[in-house]
Amino acid sequence: MRLHALLPLFLVPLAAASTPQVLQHVFSNPPSTSDFHIPSIHDSAVLARRILHLSSIATLSTVFPSHYAVSEDRPPDMGGSPIGLTDYYAACPPYQSDPTILAVSIATSFKNAAAGSNLALSLRYHAPPPSARPPAKDRYTYSTANLPRFSLIGHIEALSSAEERAHNVSGCFLDRHPDAKLWTPGNKIHESYWARLVVEEIYWFGGFGDRAYIGWIPEEVWRNVSMHEVESARLPGEEGWEERESVETGWEKEEI
Fold first, then answer.
1. What is the DSSP string of 58-86?
2. Domain assignment present for 168
3. 34-93 pLDDT, tens per residue?
4. Is residue 12 part of a domain?
5. What are phi and psi for residue 100, nearest 5 degrees?
6. pTM of full prediction above 0.85
7. Does the entry feature the keyword Cell membrane, yes or no (predicted)?
8. Three-class SS of residue 212?
9. Within a domain: residue 21?
10. Total count of domains within the chain
11. Do residues 175 and 97 lie in contact, with contact meaning Cβ atoms separated by under 8 Å?
12. Among 167, 176, 223, which residue's Cα sits nearest to residue 54?
């Protein structure tokens, strides 16, 4: 079952007849023939991979199965319903495009995955605080509604012990989450295992549609982003970031 229903609820066009034309592109891209200049799908993939690289906490969403063990304390009508829970991840080599996850078997997300659900890992970019970022050219540059977010949709794949040792997966993960040592495989509390989210689909919401790409990123584009590109890219407010000059629209002054 795909988790497309979990995509941002912001994807609703603003279609009032009296709304300026530009406002129609706040949550959708303008036609390719327009004067708007939108970053390419590849550039958007680079920014998404940078967010994945910078962060290490995201919302992991799954779908409840229709059938479940009688012993499980769960409302009876949850089958097919999605649930999103905060979880740790790390972008570990050699598969930085497929996030590494420490799966605890008893946790809801991984019980749902074991029952056949695919997963969606949803992330958003957090701009630096006002004291640590350059001033913006309009009041929406650092608006949370305008900052990038995306979802990685795929399935979970357990890592073998040999693969974990060969790539020092535990070392990479624990560098980002030292407290997770308590529930690594072999702990005395809960059964757990190393896994990766094998990414199959990527949905990107780069910001308002007059200045960012909104839509699907092909899997091959996602995987072909190099670490050099990831490390060289800059997101809004980062040191070295320069705000693009955008088409003068006047909507920045609109009272929303």
1. EEEEEE--S---TTS---TT-TT-EEEEE
2. yes
3. 455 688 999 999 999 999 999 999 999 999 998 876 557 788 888 999 999 999 999 999
4. no
5. -85, 135
6. no
7. no
8. coil
9. no
10. 1
11. no
12. 176
